[in-house]
Amino acid sequence: MSKIASALAAFGLALTVTATASAAIPVDFVYLPQNNNAAIMGRKQVPILCYHQIRDWRATDKKVDKDYIMPIAAFKEHMKMLADSGYHTILPDQLYDYLTKGTALPSKPIMLTFDDTDKDQWDIARPEMKKYGFKGVFFIMTVSIGKVKHYMSKEQIKQLSDEGNVIASHTYDHHNFKKFAGKDWETQLDKPTKKLEEITGKPVKYFAFPFGVWNSQGLPELHKRGFKLAFQLAEKRDANDPLMTVRRILDSGYWSAKTFAKALHQAFKG
Q: Can you name the residues that pair with 109 across neighbouring β-strands?
């Protein structure tokens, strides 16, 4: 290896050499960015929030249910706190560029994500976010699209995308990623991706694990399908594949605005 090639390799860059019939060998420099997992792990984590249902608690809701249900007043209070505190929402393309290239982010970046296609997200979250100029990521479970009154329609999903939000994959029917085998990869990943791309007219490059559950054995299948980032919940990231194990936390309806701010800081300070 030449001294130039060695120097480039030290910075994760590749050198291609094209031979010709002449004695001289012209050199073409091709810069191939290499995902450096250690560098990605070393970057400060961006706070990422996860929401499911946004509605008031009912007497029939159990504690485990309430963990995934955000009361309307609490959601509005938390959005106002983020806006008043100077947070700026970012989208997955920005996060990917930051993690892989160190591209600068706006001051106090945060990502808002929504799972499961719930119509509450259209009825409650969308207008509240628009009030502050916030954008979000909507992880769609395709089996539920347009089903009964509780889920968003194709038209609503398309409008969310047209308004600058990101539509991303959350499987066909919330099947546990750890149990994917055989045809599951096609049913839970390939077909939902195709359907969402048909709805939005845009590529689907991001994925969220149902229940936040994942295993390292399945991560290569996400890479194979061209996903750029995959989002879990609050578990430790995989140091060998941090792009496929991006952390989020559930925003809690039990938190006051002050407690929410503190939890946000604590969860992503590492």
A: 88
The answer for residues whose C-beta is within 8 angstroms of residue 263's C-beta and 6 or more apart is 249, 252, 255
pLDDT of residue 37: 96
Q: Quick one: pLDDT band at residue 149, thresholds 50, 70, 90?
A: confident
Contact assessment for residue 96 and residue 52, using Cβ atoms and an 8 Å cutoff = no
The phi-psi region of residue 67 (left if phi > 0; otherwise alpha if psi is between -120 and 50; otherwise beta) is alpha
Q: Has residue 57 got a pLDDT over 80?
A: yes
Contact criterion met (CB below 8 Å) for 176 and 213? yes
DSSP conformation class of 23:
S
Q: CA-CA distance, 235 to 212, in Å (whole number)?
A: 8
DSSP 139-202: EE-GGGTT-TTTB--HHHHHHHHHTT-EEEE--SS---GGG--TTHHIIIIIHHHHHHHHHHSS
Range of the domain at 16: 1-34
Q: Which two tokens stand for residue 264?
A: 């946000």
**CB 219, CB 244: distance < 8 Å:** yes
Judge if 55 and 132 occupy the same domain.
yes
Whole-model pTM?
Answer: 0.87
Closest listed residue to residue 96, CA positions, set 228, 188, 210:
228
The residues pairing with 154 across neighbouring beta strands, listed in sequence order, are: none
| Cβ-proximal residues to 29 (8 Å cutoff; 6+ apart), any chain | 8, 15, 16
| 85, two tokens | 């505190």
Residues 260, 270: Cα–Cα separation, whole Å:
17
How many structural domains are present in the chain?
A: 2
Instruction: Specify whether 128 is located in the same domain as 217.
Output: yes
